[in-house]
Amino acid sequence: MFTLVQKVRDYECDLQGIVNNANYQHYLEHARHEFLLSRGVNFKALHEQGTDAVVARLTMAFKTPLTSGDEYECTVRVRKEGIKYIFLQDIFRLSDHKLVVRATVDTVCLVNGRLAASPDLDETFKADFEAE
Amino acid sequence: MFTLVQKVRDYECDLQGIVNNANYQHYLEHARHEFLLSRGVNFKALHEQGTDAVVARLTMAFKTPLTSGDEYECTVRVRKEGIKYIFLQDIFRLSDHKLVVRATVDTVCLVNGRLAASPDLDETFKADFEAE
Amino acid sequence: MFTLVQKVRDYECDLQGIVNNANYQHYLEHARHEFLLSRGVNFKALHEQGTDAVVARLTMAFKTPLTSGDEYECTVRVRKEGIKYIFLQDIFRLSDHKLVVRATVDTVCLVNGRLAASPDLDETFKADFEAE
Amino acid sequence: MFTLVQKVRDYECDLQGIVNNANYQHYLEHARHEFLLSRGVNFKALHEQGTDAVVARLTMAFKTPLTSGDEYECTVRVRKEGIKYIFLQDIFRLSDHKLVVRATVDTVCLVNGRLAASPDLDETFKADFEAE
Fold it and tell me: C110 with C54: CB under 8 angstroms?
């Protein structure tokens, strides 16, 4: 399972003194893109070649807030359903391994702007796909 | 129903040339806070008085991307389930009223850090609550 | 003189309870792009045509912080120095017209990646250029 | 000299395909806060104790843009002028050590909302202060 450790940056906290929720979506995206990269797929190059991976649906459960100074681990697992890649992602606080966010991110590929299967990505993730 | 019209800012678009997904979460949050304000509730003052409204769960379906120059309308409806306030929010592109994002945002109140009902918010939103 | 009125969004405030400094840079950029648009120039279209307006140098003096709920006015003036467009921008708090930020933003054009004069922009801003 | 190595996250790039300028201000802030932390000073705790370090003036020269996948090094040096702490910060692209941004950040302390000297910070940074 792919994991990425990062640290909260103070500007990501809002006036409640905790990480603003939208930033967890950034954390998840960055972890997915690093996961892609670790499998040899560059998100920007993909875009320049006419293939855009886009999020179709997102569910996030917020369990424990992160705050200034916290380090966190973001996990990435993936399974395939039709033409969708379903990413299962968790964020854990590193100090006590408490669950911060649990997310499901359904993504699809737009090839030259049209919804399409991507044989290249299928091949790339072959070894990663989990059973349902 | 409460609605707020805003315009995409170019820095909200990412290297795909469309609004980065996390920004829709910002749009939804801003519309909710403006909704609160229109009902006489100030999110920051609430925080300073020891009551923090926090998101417990979020579901977003991404239908049509916004891009540079687009104006959008963000709607806010609310219903009550136990101690949760469930916000039903849509974002529409103003030019053709196409659905951009459909979201469900479950929020709860932390009073001095503990999950609690907020009789004040219940009273404030009384006229807004929708039946399931 | 071009001016744009906007309102602080709560997520733009950080753990100090005031607008995070980097957001003022966003406010300035958005006002410049709206200024361009009001003169018939679309920043995104410009990029797609191979001309990128980029910031070469920025000076910001932070005078009064904005916070949750504040409305602000952002002004845009421009003068020309060689191939540089120098934007003089102020942000004022609307409630008392207090100065929030005073900025000078030196921008240049990259045409197909190379520093170059832009006769089109010169023509567009002709009536706006101020004397030094 | 304090340095911090980080990596560009794709959402930090805008529709020009390069890091949006405001994010460099975030990079600089994060490096300063990590510098503080390395000297035993916690920015959030400082705020909670009534002392807010705030930026009074910022100058940034943008030399080379960062883009998706780039790693960068952010440096922090500091000198004292009256009650101001002047941070001299550079951002370098790691791959070729090219200068990305050169910045000067003048900060002051607000103690309980009023401009004031901070003997604690003076003591903390004593060994770091550079001559002009």
Answer: yes
Residue A127 DSSP class:
T
The 10 Å CB-count burial string (b at 16+, else e) for B36-66 is beeeebebbebbeeebbbebbbbebbbbebb
Q: Measure the CA–CA gap between B58 and D108, rounded to whole angstroms.
A: 40
Q: Write down the pLDDT at residue C36.
A: 95
Q: Which residue has the tokens 């996030």?
A: A60
> If you average pLDDT over every residue of chain B, what do you get?
96
Closest by CA position to B41, among listed B71, B76, B6: B76
Chain A partners of D14 at a C-beta cutoff of 8 Å? none
Q: Is some CB atom of chain B closer than 8 A to the CB atom of C11?
A: yes
Instruction: Indicate the burial class of C8 (C-beta count within 10 angstroms; 0-12, 13-18, 19 or more).
Output: buried
Handedness of CA A45, D10, C46, B95 (dihedral sign): positive
The complex's ipTM works out to 0.95
Q: Indicate yes or no: CB of D47 within 8 angstroms of CB of C15.
A: yes
pLDDT at A132: 74
Q: What percent of chain D has pLDDT over 90?
A: 93
Percent of chain C residues past pLDDT 90, beyond the cut: 93
Helix (H) or strand (E) holding C113: none
Which of D:50-79 have CB within 8 Å of C?
A: 52, 54-62, 65
Residue B109 in contact with residue B121, Cβ under 8 Å? yes
Q: Is the pTM of this model over 0.95?
A: yes
Q: Over the stretch B44-103, which tens digit does the pLDDT of each residue have?
A: 999 999 999 999 999 999 999 999 999 999 999 999 999 999 999 999 999 999 999 999
Q: Strand pairing partners for D13?
A: D19
B30 touches chain A (CB under 8 A): no
Position D120 scores a pLDDT of 87
- List CB contacts of A9: < 8 A, sequence separation 6 or more: D26, D29, D30, D33
Contacts 24+ apart (CB under 8 A), A69-73: A69/A7, A69/A8, A69/D37, A69/D42, A69/D44, A70/A7, A70/A8, A70/A19, A70/A94, A70/A95, A71/A5, A71/A6, A71/A7, A71/A8, A71/A95, A72/A5, A72/A6, A72/A7, A72/A8, A72/A27, A72/A100, A73/A3, A73/A4, A73/A5
The overall average pLDDT reported for chain C is 96
State whether A57 and B59 contact (CB < 8 Å).
yes
